[in-house]
Specification:
This protein is of the alpha/beta class and 138 residues long. The chain is built from 5 helices and 4 strands, in the order E-H-E-H-E-H-E-H-H.
Amino acid sequence: MKKIWAVICGNLRDIFEFYTTLGWLCDARANGRIEGIVFSTWVGEIDKVDGLKERLQKLNVCIVENKEIDAANTGYSDIVYIRQMYQFQQGLKVLPHDVFVLKCRTDYSNFDLNRMEIPEDLELMKVERQIGMGNLKY
């Protein structure tokens, strides 16, 4: 069965939302629903919150700090997309091969995570979807 890893991407706009997302992911990891957690953000972002780097290390969260992108000649909507995809891409680089990836934001992920059900057997889910069996929730 393939393992699931979570990649959290973004700036720390709302530390409460970040901590609740991180708490959900740590609980999912402790219960065996996901294998690992990566936090991909910009250099210096983690340092804005006292003690955060130490907490993440203690929780065994892989930290990826990325150099800011030069956006001098880029439109606003383009740079938002490019920044998000760059952080995600850098986070993917540290994952094991052949895993499912759960992409989360530092904010706005709480509602979706709390509604999500991770199937016990992802390989069975794949087979059921191919042959059209059942009403799967994921």
